[in-house]
Amino acid sequence: MGEITINLDSVITKNDDMVAGVVDADIMMMSIETGKYYQLNQTGGEIWGILDMPQTIASICDILESRFNVERDVIERELMNYIRELSARRIVMVK
Questions:
Q1: Is residue 1 part of a domain?
Q2: What is the rounded CA–CA span in Å between residue 48 and residue 45?
Q3: For the chain, how many structural domains are there in total?
Q4: Which domain holds residue 63?
Q5: For 14-65, what is each residue's pLDDT tens digit?
Q6: Residue 3 falls inside a structural domain
Q7: What distance in Å separates the CA atoms of residue 85 and residue 92, rounded to the nearest whole number?
Q8: Is 20 contained in some domain?
Q9: What is the DSSP string of 43-90?
Q10: pLDDT in the model for residue 26
């Protein structure tokens, strides 16, 4: 599988195959398709919550920038890496 190409205009959606619930401050997830379990920390949970509606990378960055005291370029770089990882595991879909 090649590296996923994403940019600020890429639309990110939750994979409907994932079942998720909150345990303490983390999100616990299971893929119905594969039976694999995943855990998202609090920041990952914030991103998962933002994805209740499909969002562009740019709009996710805007929301995260308003919630956290982090430079925009750091948010963009870290978010794109994180979305690539989630997409490779089929937790989210990139359109």
A1: no
A2: 5
A3: 1
A4: 11-94
A5: 999 999 998 887 899 999 989 999 999 989 999 999 999 999 999 999 999 9
A6: no
A7: 9
A8: yes
A9: HHHHHHHHTTS-EEHHHHHHHHHHHS---HHHHHHHHHHHHHHHHHTT
A10: 86
23, part of any domain: yes
- Pull the structure tokens for residue 50: 């933002």
Burial 58-84 (b: 16+ CB within 10 A, else e): ebbbeebeeeeeeeeeebbeebbebbb
| CB neighbour class for 45 (10 Å; exposed up to 12, middle 13-18, buried from 19) | middle
- Map tokens 């308003």 to a residue: 66
CATH of the domain at 19: 3.90.930.60
- Residue 4 tokens, joined: 């996923």
Q: What's the pTM value of the predicted model, to 2 decimals?
A: 0.89
